[in-house]
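Thread: Major facilitator superfamily (MFS) profile domain-containing protein, structure

OP (GT): Posting the sequence first so everyone is looking at the same thing. Length is 429 residues per the record. Can we get the structure tokens written out before standup tomorrow? I want them in the notebook alongside the other entries.
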Amino acid sequence: MTRTPKYSWFILFFLVLSGMINQVDKIIIGLVSVPVMKELDLSPSQWGVVGSSFFWAFTFSSLILGGMADSKNTKKMLSWMSLIWLLVQFATPFVSSVSLLVLTRIILGAGEGPAPALSTAIIGKWFPKHRHGIGFGAVLLGTTGGSAIASPLLISLIDQYGWRSAFIAMGVMGLIVLVFWLVFGRDNPQEIGYPSFQQEEKQSSSLLKVSWREFLPHLFSKNFILIVLCGGCAYWLLAVQSVWFPAYFTKVQQFNGQMLQLAVALPFLFAAFCQIGFAMLSDWLYRKTGDIRKARVNLAGFMMLLSALCVYLGNAADSTAMTIVFFTLAPGFAYVILSLAPAILMEFYSPQNIGKAQGTFIALASATSIIAPMVFGYLIQHSATEAMGYGYAFEASSFGMLIIGILFWIGVRPAKRSHTTIKSDYVQS
């Protein structure tokens, strides 16, 4: 197998840091939910709109700018995106109305939308195919592990200095990471004298990069649609976790202090272990079998079913300990699809089109994050009690995840081939 350059791991380290900043920027809004709702006098439905607004532009920017990762300098693109992230964090402490808060979330979403596609494209340049799972898993490890570390620290910061301090702290962190990326980041291995993995893929692929117009019909295949739906379940739960978990633990479960920090941080910590652990397991299975279903599809499908079960049990649990346990397990199991989906797509698409594929996947799958916060907000506000509203919302989420997880597990099937490596640039149904 092709050796991985040592500098590839250095690039991956920066992608992990970038993913960490990216995710923590998202979840801050949930951590400050109680004080901000109180200060701005917001109802649950209004807070649902605030939580949803991040994904309004996120979806379109991941589709449009994510596709540009196939042909543009990815280092420059990630640099500009990172600059937008930190500027928004520095601006948010000055908001004084719900409309301004929504505006900052929209701009942040637009800046962060292309990030997963950019990371995918960069990993495709710097890592051979048999390392893709660990590459994508490491980036997602940064997003979840970073959130696990940052959440308790930010909650303490908010308690001591107010909610605005959390945004300032993340702006400073974003600035530090951006400076290091500008100095040490590289667009591709050829800049430091290594051969391009993409060039090897070009030579082994019968089809090269195509235009959006030629590419679009391939997105209506059964496989791609099911991958998007399964990813949509993960984004649904991610939005709920980011926007509503802290308020749920505070208002319904009556957690505060260290218990609240534990309940918020543990799901991210467990998800971090899931991202890297299942990515490594998937890569090992792929090296052993060369079979995408055995190595990636079966794993992601089974984990989604377990996540659906945990969401249901977390809502039904009658003890604090079991509530924390099941709501810790649910996100980690669900997010496995987010680390394996890029590796699955890399099997179906040529590297010259992976930016379009991953950008479209993120755009469509993350659309559920627009809906989820508002659905929860509506049910919470219009139910007899907040606890009942959360209960209805969690039950509906569990049922939807269960059905889609089964369809994904059964339905995603690549065409039979005489060899194990899939080298086409479109999803075959």
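GT: Both are above now. Quick notes for whoever picks this up: Confidence is low (pLDDT under 50) at residues 201-207, 417-429. The CA atoms of residues 314 and 323 lie 5 Å apart.
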